[in-house]
Amino acid sequence: MDALLVTFLVAVAALTGAASAAPRAFFVFGDSLVDNGNNNYLMTTARADAPPYGIDFPTHMPTGRFSNGLNIPDIISEHLGSEPALPYLSPELRGEKLLVGANFASAGVGILNDTGIQFVNIIRIGQQLQNFQEYQQKLAAFIGEDAATQLVNQALVLITLGGNDFVNNYYLVPFSIRSRQFAIQDYVPYLIFEYKKILARLYELGARRVVVTGTGMIGCVPAELAMHSIDGECARDLTEAADLFNPQLVRMQAELNDEIGQDVFIAANTNRVSFDFMFHPQDYGFVTSKVACCGQGPYNGIGLCTPASNVCPNRDVYAYWDAFHPTERANRIIVGQFMHGSTDHISPMNLSTILAMDNRN
């Protein structure tokens, strides 16, 4: 065989091996728990672009993540063997960076369009899905339509919505519009109905592996303890709302999977994971799961985390970074349960099992 041909075939084989070993793309939708900087490009108060946010990030600078360091998508990217997907609004999201995926999330948004209206200019979920369509057009222009479709179909998707529909809508103020319109027992099924349409649209747009997180213990975050707790007990209304929402969300995903005929949607029980370290913080190395590391007032739960706020010296022993968001260390515990947890934490199977199955196919 001609020496040049042999060299060419070896090079092609090497490239093919490298391509097959490339990490799968990763797409992220949702709110401030997973936003990694889109709101930095918007005129909104829902931003994390000033110190001490990012104090433990590799650059020690704020990035738009509502965390002292890495957030949940960053840590999932580590498990995928990939760099974090860039915010969709980042001017750096072009060329080879498109192959990593994209983060479409925007702090303040919810399932409903009227959630977070006080933040004014945020990327509501409908627009996030439209941005996903636009991303796919850019990707197709870069690698071709067939390759773009394959990349999207094989990608992992994370969506986190729901908490703001309670905290920043139904329970935002006494006698809110939504609370006058619905009893909580009727509001939750309405949210689930609207969320099902969002997930179905994600499937239409090519998503085939979608991790859907429920709401965490929204009644127990430092902000709610500061506003509604006298003795450190979780806020009853928000706790009951989460207890209604999460089981109905799991059932809805199972229905969608049955309709599609495959396990597209993976239910991640964030409430169970946060329950574990909320009520047994010492088991996870935390000194507290009630007081935020950064803030002011009772439980450091009043107002925003700012340069003037109290900041704890060791973020690793706090479950909450600010009034609403976990520390990087808590995020690592959450993702660890997504990756390796039992069906109590993620169902019908954990992410490690899913990734191994998909790699064999």
Biggest sheet statistics: 6 strands, mixed
The fraction of residues assigned to DSSP E strands is 5-15%
User: How many alpha or pi helices?
Assistant: 12
From the N-terminal CA to the C-terminal CA, the straight-line distance is 33 Å
Rough shape? globular
Tell how many strands the DSSP assignment holds. 8
Write down the Rg: 21 Å
| Average pLDDT score | 93
Helix content: 40-55%
SSE run: HEHEHHEHHHEHHEHEEHEH
Q: Helix- and strand-based class?
A: alpha/beta
Point out poorly predicted stretches. Answer: 1-20
User: Strand order, biggest sheet?
Assistant: 2-1-3-4-5-8
Annotation keywords:
361 residues, 43% helix, single chain, six-stranded mixed beta sheet, alpha/beta
How would you sum up this structure, described in words?
The protein is of the alpha/beta class and about 350 residues long. Helix content is about 45%, strand content about 5%. It has twelve helices and eight strands. Helix 2 links the parallel strand 1 (about 25-30) and strand 2. Helix 3 packs across helix 4. The longest helix is centred in the last third of the chain and has 25 residues, at about 235-260. The model is unreliable at about 1-20 (pLDDT under 50).
